[in-house]
């Protein structure tokens, strides 16, 4: 097992290893003063791991109530959030009690935002079951839900008390979901860690063996997850509330959120991030910020991990018309992004493999940026 300590406004550990679901109760017990836990999960994850985690929590002396919602981004909305708030009140959770989020990014974001606002804030624990959640959304304290106008427009910073990443859960991912998670892994290599990027360039075949439970692949994946979490930890500790540096973690996300929105969330987050990173790299090549060779390396690694190199590939993968992703339409959606304001938007521009810069860009140049989409 690998432990990464995060020293944010609430200090906590990220535990990464195999078989940790069975130990979840023992890990959580010393951290929570109350005896009641709300286990929040979705309709995909509940049949796989819900009972295992509930038993582990009960064995540690907790009373556990379970809230299960329909899987999918469309559930990360105000109505599900309200239903979960009512569920907590009906089950009489107190400020000493806690929420346990079991699932991917949607579950963690929804449960975390609910924890941040129920009774003006209670504790929560993240148990990510997707690669994307393990390396990104479960760490750092960003929580939220989507509004009709855009993704994650309603939310709060609320750090978990603990993150338990049982890598065995990743063996049950669909290949498509693993691929989406790798987009976030590649992101860290581009923006912050050239050595990680180089490791990934030579490890695609082995990492895909995670889906078969191969021991060597699982060991490599544990190292990769810990490296990504360590990078995010360093960024969050330096800029917890995204006043500056933390914005680099949004590499590829401005375009990705527009892609998700225009596809009516048929294109999942990780796949959209893959396309969004290529858009940003193409734009960086165009303005001379990124060497052409590095842009080619980004394009090639996305190909190695079966990620689309632009909006056309993403659209065709999901049976959508590529023409809906016009630069103008994507720019209009991006205007509602949290990163936009005062006539400008912060774009993360790669300058080399392992380095990037935040560029404040006039919103009237967004269509030009989005136009580098294939």
Number of strands: 12
Rg (CA only): 20 Å
**Biggest sheet: strand arrangement:** 1-2-9-6-5-3-4
- Count the DSSP helices: 15
Mean pLDDT: 96
Largest sheet: 7 strands, mixed
Strand content: 15-25%
Large-scale geometry: globular
Task: Give a written overview of the molecule.
With 374 residues, the protein is of the alpha/beta class. The protein contains 15 helices and 12 strands. It has helices at 24-28, 46-59, 78-90, 105-117, 131-137, 175-192, 194-201, 204-208, 215-238, 253-262, 269-286, 292-304, 311-317, 327-334, 366-370, and strands spanning 2-7, 11-17, 36-42, 63-69, 98-103, 123-128, 142-147, 150-157, 162-166, 340-341, 344-352, 355-362. A 7-stranded mixed beta sheet has the order 1-2-9-6-5-3-4, sandwiched between helices. A 3-stranded antiparallel beta sheet has the order 10-11-12. A hairpin with a 2-residue loop joins strand 11 and strand 12 (355-362). The longest helix has 24 residues, at 215-238. The radius of gyration is 20 Å and the shape is globular. The model has no long low-confidence stretch (mean pLDDT 96).
